Prior knowledge:
By secondary structure, this protein is mostly helical. 78% of the residues lie in helices and 0% in strands.
Amino acid sequence: EVRTLRGQLDELQHTVQKTQDQQRDMYGDVDRRLAALEGGGPRAAASSSGATDLPVPQGDDRANYQAAFDLLKDGKYPEAIGGFKQFLTTFPTSVLADNAQYWLGEAHYVTKQYPDALRDFRTVLEKYPDSRKTPDALLKIGFCNYELKNWPEARSALTQVVQRFGDTTAARLASQRLAKMDGEGR
């Protein structure tokens, strides 16, 4: 019976490892696709379109937030970065400011501007400690530090996500990255 149970346990562990590897691969694939979408075209368009202007010059905070977010969704990262920066300058007390700060970090992260992304995600934690984006910002702080090869900082941030936000998607992703770090000996 023990041998049978041990065999079943080994099978389950193998299945879990395989599933985690597949999820990591899918997440990496999404990151690669988003990075590929940025290409050279959007950067050139940003420099000629005055990316520091509000996306909707006469619009309110919601219209400008949505316009910047739409640019992000469309893969127009440099324009989205400009839109979110201008949003945060023009509407610093908006109820959407924490989300704008997070998505600014996400746009920097997707374009592999990890030091900028790290700064943006830290700002979410510092300026908006009660934000719904806190678990995700802390997760991305861990991811940015991982990409920057700051292993202790990455491990610290990811461990905090697991401990503080245990039953969330962010905590699951943090656990997966910690397992990857363990596997890499980091």
